[in-house]
Specification:
single chain, three-stranded antiparallel sheet, alpha+beta, 2 domains, 3 helices
């Protein structure tokens, strides 16, 4: 059996194993920054708007909760850089909302 370590689309390491008959399986190695993120689990819902209408004060409260989690997160910088790199248009990433990330990207594009 041949094994090869690769990076997934999310930056997580995976081990690809080639088996008899040409079948390939991927085994996730939980070493990527996403696996150490503070937003994993039940609290993840505060990072994105709900599917229903959200009033301004509700949005600000939800974003404040998400940002509080981000500011304690050990991978905040990696998360923000990832969101900027892929130009993520939704949610709180690395402690910043869509508009805040858009401003950073506009500043970078001006350089």
């Amino acid at each position: 059996m041949l094994a090869k370590v690769v990076l997934s689309a999310w930056g997580a390491k995976a081990t690809l194993r080639e088996r008899k008959g040409g079948h390939v399986s991927a085994l996730r190695q939980e070493e990527g920054w996403q696996f150490r993120a503070g937003c994993r689990g039940p609290a993840a819902t505060v990072f994105f708007p709900p599917p229903r209408f959200e009033r301004k004060h509700e949005r600000l409260s939800r974003e404040a909760q998400a940002k509080a989690i981000c500011f304690e997160c050990p991978v905040q910088d990696e998360c923000l850089e990832y969101a900027l790199e892929i130009r993520e248009p939704h949610g709180i990433w690395g402690g910043l909302n869509e508009a805040e990330r858009k401003a950073i990207l506009a500043e970078r594009d001006d350089r």
